[in-house]
Each structure stands twice: as C-alpha cells, then as structure tokens.
C-alpha cells in the first residue's frame, strides 16, 4: 500500500471539514488501513463514513486487497497532537514527564506548552494543621511523555 497516496486521500477528505484533523494513519503488513481522526467539536459517524468512502473509492481492490477502518480516538488513548490539548481545556489531565507525574485541570495551551492547575493540602508554614493551596505548572510539549484525559463520574 502506498502510504502517501492514502494520506493524501485522507487529507483531501479532511479538507472538506476544517474542524477535523488526522491523529494517526497505520498500515499493517496485511494491508489493514487504520485511520484515526478527531475534531475540535468531536466527530460524528457520518464524517467517519465520508472519509472512509473517499479513501476506499479512490483505491483499487483488484490491484491490491485491503481493509479500511476510520475511527476516533477513545478516551484510553493518550493525546498525540497539540490540537487535541486545545479541545480538552478545562478537563483534568494526567501528564507524565521524565521526572514527575502531574494531575490537574488543563487551563491554557499555546504552541510551546500547556498549563495545569490543581489544589493541594500542605502543612501550614506557621503552626499546626494544613492549608489548601492552588498549584500551577507549565509543561513544555517536548517534556510530555504521555498525557491522558481523566474521566470523572
């Protein structure tokens, strides 16, 4: 399978809806094509079908047999691209870096880094007991090893 041709077909389909973007494109050795797309406002089933048809109708099964799957990322998958972070502002993220793990509300995103905020209980500087303080950390994308959205029920 020609990955660049498939990528072009997916990009062509995504261009029809600017809120959609490609997360991942995987072609296995047995020609199983897996396309993962996301959107700024989510992705409905009809968009997945439209993307699938655009790819499938422009490839020749007689030339090379394949299977095609167009999906959206599920909540268990880590965030992969910067645009996904923007979509998840005000949600709780679990972020792993080389040195530390953080869990907090994603409050801001820019081209270089993300910012998380959370509340923590710390010992009072003077006297006994604890006090609740608001913590904040800025993490550059290059330092993020894995980031997942935490589901709160």
Can you give a write-up of this model?
With 153 residues, this protein is of the alpha+beta class. It has helices at 3-14, 45-56, 82-87; strands spanning 20-27, 32-39, 67-71, 92-97, 101-109, 113-123, 130-140, 144-149. A 5-stranded antiparallel β-sheet has the order 7-6-5-4-8. It is elongated. The mean pLDDT is 93.
Q: Which key terms come to mind for this protein?
A:
elongated, 153 residues, three-stranded mixed beta sheet, alpha+beta
Write a concise synopsis of the structure shown.
The chain is an alpha+beta fold and 153 residues long.
Q: Going across the major beta sheet, what is the strand order? A: 7-6-5-4-8
Order of helices and strands: HEEHEHEEEEE
Largest beta sheet, briefly?
5 strands, antiparallel
Shape label: elongated
Category by helix and strand content: alpha+beta
| Unreliable parts | none
Strand element count: 8
Task: Specify the helix fraction band.
Answer: 10-25%
Rg over CA atoms, rounded to whole Å, is: 20 Å
Gap between N and C termini, in Å?
43 Å
| Arithmetic mean pLDDT | 93
Counted by DSSP, the helix tally is 3
Task: Report strand %.
Answer: 35-45%
């Amino acid at each position: 399978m020609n990955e660049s041709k498939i990528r072009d077909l997916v990009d062509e389909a995504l261009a029809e809806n600017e809120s959609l973007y490609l997360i991942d494109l995987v072609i296995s050795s047995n020609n199983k094509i897996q396309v993962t797309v996301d959107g700024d406002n989510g992705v409905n089933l009809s968009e997945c079908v439209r993307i699938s048809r655009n790819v499938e109708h422009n490839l020749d099964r007689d030339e090379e047999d394949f299977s095609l799957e167009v999906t959206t990322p599920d909540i268990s998958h880590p965030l992969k691209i910067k645009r996904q972070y923007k979509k998840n502002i005000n949600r709780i993220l679990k972020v792993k870096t080389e040195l530390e793990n953080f869990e907090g509300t994603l409050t801001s995103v820019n081209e270089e880094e993300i910012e998380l905020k959370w509340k923590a209980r710390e010992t009072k500087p003077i006297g006994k007991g604890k006090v609740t303080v608001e913590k904040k950390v800025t993490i550059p994308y290059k330092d993020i090893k894995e980031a997942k959205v935490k589901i709160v029920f």
